[in-house]
Amino acid sequence: MKLLSPAQTRALDQATSKAQGITSLELMERAATTLLDWLLTTLQPTYTTPIHLFCGPGNNGGDGLALARLLHEAGYVAHVWLLPAERYSADFTANRHQLPDGISCQELDTARLPDLPAGAVVVDALFGAGLNRPLTGLAAAVVAYLNAAAAFTVAVDIPSGLFADAAQEPDSAVVQAQYTVSFELPKLAFLLPQNAGFVGEWHILPIGLEPVVIHKTAVDNYYVDAAFLQGRLPARPKFSHKGTFGHALLLAGSRGKVGAAVLAASACLRGGVGLLTVRVPEVGYFILQTTVPEAMCLTDPAPDFLTELPDLQPYAAVGMGPGLGQAEASREVLRQLLHKAKVPLVLDADALNLLGANRDLLDLLPPDTLLTPHPKEFERLTGEPARDDYHRLEQLRAFTRQRRCYCVLKGAYTVLATPDGIIYFNSTGNPGMATGGSGDVLTGLLLALRADKRLSPLNAALLGLYAHGRAGDLAARETGEAGLVAGDLVRFIGPALQELMASPHRL
Ligand SMILES: NC(=O)C1=CN([C@@H]2O[C@H](COP(=O)(O)OP(=O)(O)OC[C@H]3O[C@@H](n4cnc5c(N)ncnc54)[C@H](OP(=O)(O)O)[C@@H]3O)[C@@H](O)[C@H]2O)[C@@H](O)CC1
Ligand SMILES: Nc1ncnc2c1ncn2[C@@H]1O[C@H](COP(=O)(O)OP(=O)(O)O)[C@@H](O)[C@H]1O
Ligand SMILES: [K+]
């Protein structure tokens, strides 16, 4: 799915009205009807639940007014609270006039704010995508009042006071919603950790906006769901052999961290690689041969950490980093790898820390290298702390453009940035994956997909991120989130990939 800017969303609304021969008021009615359905199904209010709708002067307020009318007609208790303004949008005014006589409708002022007991529902339709400055005065006071109340809050389109695709000033007045219900496409703001306390759980309601117009709209940010990946993972051909899927080399492990090599190696095998060789220091030999017998083990002459780069000639892709440690000798192995590699590279964990501590190595990164830092590792790579989540995204775009690489930023909604500066947000995964070793599993899986010559660098990365998160979601069904450990992810990589695999008999 594409993440559109507010201006693009407005243009999409207008193009939809034109293409479908409907007025913007009719489109608003469609949105409100869909919202009503969602609200009744998800919140299941009773006929006595007080539902307070706070409506601003624009079309967001118009949505709120239309919803109030529909709730009233369906027999629910709707109270409308209007925010006075100098100007009102045409569709707001039309819906204001359509409000039935029997509905309670009052103008807000600081002396007249409703009692909002626990169990009441608040619908926040003050400001939506048209917000163009921070909230002040009465609007800010109302937001503070709503945030202090015990009521359950549903934000229409976006929590009021939050910008759809830019940071707001710290301490700005922003509604803290339990649910945010938006139309057709998610907004960038929903995907950033700094907005979690405002957005709550978000839902997208399709309202039939024109798919052709969405298709033609150029964007820099995407949200990757299963539909987005359809057809990107080819089926395994009937007459394939292990050579078809590539021979990967994994450079990983040091004394006390051989487990990271085991996890990455297991994930690489479950990711469908043809052959896997793991280079570990001597200390890892028995561990690896016993726990991952499917992998070949090529031990380094040193006992505790890697000191020598093996001949790279046999390999289709090389991964380096999990449990590596940051010994000087291992740094030199990394330097040689960057000099010599002619095949795709996946760099993680200590390989990234070594890059951050020896920035000259960054100049050696071969094009299309895939880096998988979490935010702290990314900060070490750039050497500059991010001001906020939006700034971090811009740092990421600048980094991948400059280095011509692919870079992941791990977390909830893991991000992938491409050499063209396009950003993809992954949709799968859960907090159970916040556990040691989850990242090692991701590295192994990505290595397998980069070794598969049938996949582009972009598709390998997108599929790997999605399947990793999906494996986490499947595993959590069995283990619960708290009980999830990284090894559980490995067991569910196969099923997660199978869900994505194209059928050879379908278009
Ligand atoms: N996308 C879709 O698919 C569909 C979208 N729809 C809905 O339309 C919504 C967007 O509507 P919108 O463009 O009228 O903007 P919205 O946020 O209601 O208000 C802007 C108004 O507020 C004002 N204003 C701005 N900032 C302010 C501030 N800080 N403090 C005070 N005032 C401020 C600004 O006026 P100004 O004062 O700048 O002249 C303007 O009057 C969208 O979120 C969704 O709910 C559906 O109906 C149909 C399908
Ligand atoms: N709250 C979360 N929601 C979804 N995925 C998560 C969450 N927390 C962590 N993850 C995923 O788990 C992995 C953790 O990686 P990392 O931080 O490198 O862990 P480690 O170094 O212990 O292996 C990443 O792929 C990340 O996206
Ligand atoms: K809103």
UniProtKB/TrEMBL annotation:
PROSITE patterns: YJEF_C_2, YJEF_C_3, YJEF_N
Cofactor note: Binds 1 potassium ion per subunit.
Recorded superkingdom: Bacteria
Residues that bind K(+): 60, 124, 160
Binding positions for (6S)-NADPHX per the UniProt entry: 59-63, 128-134, 157, 260, 323, 374, 440
A GO biological-process term: nicotinamide nucleotide metabolic process
Record InterPro entries: Carbohydrate_kinase_pred_CS, CARKD, Nnr, Ribokinase-like, YjeF_N_dom, YjeF_N_dom_sf
EC identifiers of the protein: 4.2.1.136, 5.1.99.6
Residues covered by the YjeF C-terminal domain: 225-500
Cofactor(s) annotated in UniProt: K(+); Mg(2+)
Residue span(s) of domain YjeF N-terminal: 9-215
Record key words, sorted: ATP-binding, Isomerase, Lyase, Metal-binding, Multifunctional enzyme, NAD, NADP, Nucleotide-binding, Potassium
Chain positions recorded as AMP binding sites: 410-414, 439
Catalytic reaction equation(s): (6R)-NADHX = (6S)-NADHX; (6S)-NADPHX + ADP = AMP + phosphate + NADPH + H(+); (6R)-NADPHX = (6S)-NADPHX; (6S)-NADHX + ADP = AMP + phosphate + NADH + H(+)
Signal peptide: none
GO molecular function, one term: NAD(P)HX epimerase activity
HAMAP family, sorted: NADHX_dehydratase (MF_01965), NADHX_epimerase (MF_01966)
Oligomeric form and interacting partners: Homotetramer.
Function per UniProt: Catalyzes the dehydration of the S-form of NAD(P)HX at the expense of ADP, which is converted to AMP. Together with NAD(P)HX epimerase, which catalyzes the epimerization of the S- and R-forms, the enzyme allows the repair of both epimers of NAD(P)HX, a damaged form of NAD(P)H that is a result of enzymatic or heat-dependent hydration.
Family of the protein in this entry: In the N-terminal section; belongs to the NnrE/AIBP family. Belongs to the NnrE/AIBP family.
Official protein name in the record: Bifunctional NAD(P)H-hydrate repair enzyme
UniProt organism field: Hymenobacter swuensis DY53
Taxonomic placement: Bacteria, Pseudomonadati, Bacteroidota, Cytophagia, Cytophagales
